[in-house]
Amino acid sequence: MSRTIVAAAAQLGPIARLDTRKAVVERLIALLGEAASRGAELVVFPELTLTTFFPRWHMTDPDEIDAFYETEMPGPDTRPLFETARRLKIGFYLGYAELAVENGVKHRYNTAILVDRNGEIVGTYRKIHLPGWDRPQPGRTAQHLEKYYFEPGNLGFKVFETMGTRIGMAICNDRRWPETYRVMALKGSEMILVGYNTPDDHTGHFDFDSLTQFHNQLSLQAGAYQNSNWVIATAKAGHEEGSNLIGQSMIVAPSGQIVAMATSTADEVIVAKCDLDMAALYRKTIFDFARHREPEAYRLIVETRGPVSD
Ligand code: CDT
């Protein structure tokens, strides 16, 4: 008997700086309802779902900064989302800015959680590949200051056994790095969930920026195919506070084929029935890791960060 899971990407259009959490959560609940009515059992929301993409600004006032972070999950504003998911029997991935206190010390992470169909948090991931800079860059109107607002995640790439499958999580820039998918695939993941906020005007180099959508597709399709995983990737999209965020949320099969893609840059749900045994097919054949991988030849990948001379 084949194993399937109906998965949805719930793309969000822009969120303004002054939009309240309550207003955003109402949008998420509407998307959850639509996904459920179309048979979805698992919904993926974007990176930093609850607020505008604030790393585009350099803020220095601690109170102003703290207002973008969650100190508890669920909290008073997000609890209705968990309750709705439990009632609809639908699991979800949610990205948000996390302010955590570990051993009495404050830490800030770009985080995603995985919630099962009973509304319980069953997995947490903290973004590892933080793009951008740790201080404002002179001459740039739109900054990308993720290294200023977050520390690299300290939980590694884990795989969570839940909802009848094995699920891994990644966040935005992680999707461009092959190591992200490979570590989770080695741990037996069958589905990788990704939320993102990707501006198409961030480098100022037209030759590069004009390929932003192509690079999104390329990374997600390669990650899915080379690692025999379903990839569910969800954008925060549209013209947000002066920045153009690409949409193109998509569901990619382990064959690398795109089986669903958003057509707008607004709130939009896409749904696909994912055959989990398709992942097994690729992993038993062309990507049978145990038979074909040669880790001795890859040592350098974990021994160095940057280029080395041979
Ligand atoms: N949020 C995020 O990781 N965005 C990046 C843009 C990088 S531009 C410095 C991305 O990889 O899409």
Automatic annotation (TrEMBL):
Annotated CN hydrolase domain residues: 5-276
Protein known as: N-carbamoyl-D-amino acid hydrolase
Keyword Hydrolase: yes
SUPFAM superfamilies: Carbon-nitrogen hydrolase
Keywords, sorted A to Z: Hydrolase, Plasmid
EC primary class: hydrolase
CDD domains cross-referenced by the UniProt entry: DCase
GO molecular function: N-carbamoyl-D-amino acid hydrolase activity
EC nos: 3.5.1.77
The keyword Cell membrane belongs to this UniProt entry's keyword annotation: no
